[in-house]
Amino acid sequence: MGSLKSDIYIKLDGHVRVDQREVRLKDMASVYCSDAALMHRLEDVPVFTFEEKDGEKEVISILYVYAAIYKSLGEDLQIHSIGSEDCLVDLISEKKPSKFRSHIQVILVSLVTFFGAAFSIMTYNEDAGVDDVFQTLYKIFLGFDSGNGVLEFTYSLGIGLGILVFFNHFEKKGRRNPTAMEIQMDKYEQDMVDAYVKSSDRRGKSLDVED
Question: Regarding beta strands 86-91 and 57-61, do their DSSP bridges make them parallel or antiparallel, or are they unpaired?
């Protein structure tokens, strides 16, 4: 039964962000071991240190993590990996942007999003001939092809409410379902991580046991 204490389970994350140059195992993976003292030592194992020449991104393989653990704690350990094979580590700049700059960025993004959405809706309405549809409906129900703007008002209101409902903004916070936007952003981030890992492997820039 004593050998069970040396069994280590590591769940390596696919993408992590750190704010310090020295990356430890706990920064990029979840660790479990039946020996609590050993688990704490494992979590503090230094895996990689960012140098000035390294930039702010690094791909680290699970084998490189194994080598770091064996180097720090010895080789009489049984390690089991249940996570990703590679981890993309982003070094976040220690300098925080000023509040004024952050506010300007939020305003610019909001303006671009607002006018971009408005332009998209207008071009869709023009292509679909929504004005002609409204005129036809007015003529069917009122007998003439122009009304008091009720259809236009309810149509505009419905677009706004539809967007809110579609993106789950009315759902309570907590264990809520992810919104459609969050799902798409997660897919984009995963695709970006996969592309960066493959590119690093092709260029021989990822950290592996041969490094």
Answer: antiparallel
Residues 83 and 164: their CA atoms lie apart, in Å, by 36
Low-confidence stretches of the chain (pLDDT < 70) are: 1-6, 54, 94-97, 145, 147, 167-176, 210-211
What DSSP letter does each residue of 23-70 carry, written as one string?
EEHHHHEEEEES-HHHHHHHHT-EEEE--GGGTTEEEEEHHHHHHHHH
> How far apart are the C-alpha atoms of 126 and 170, rounded to whole Å?
30
Q: What's the CA dihedral at 52, 54, 58, 61 to 10 degrees?
A: -120
Q: What whole-number distance in Å separates Cα of residue 13 and Cα of residue 62?
A: 10
Q: Which two tokens stand for residue 85?
A: 């094979």
pTM: 0.68
> What per-residue confidence (pLDDT) applies to 11?
94
Helix-strand-coil split of the chain, %, nearest 5: 55, 20, 25
Look at residue 181 in the predicted model and tell me its pLDDT: 76
Q: What is the pLDDT of residue 179?
A: 73
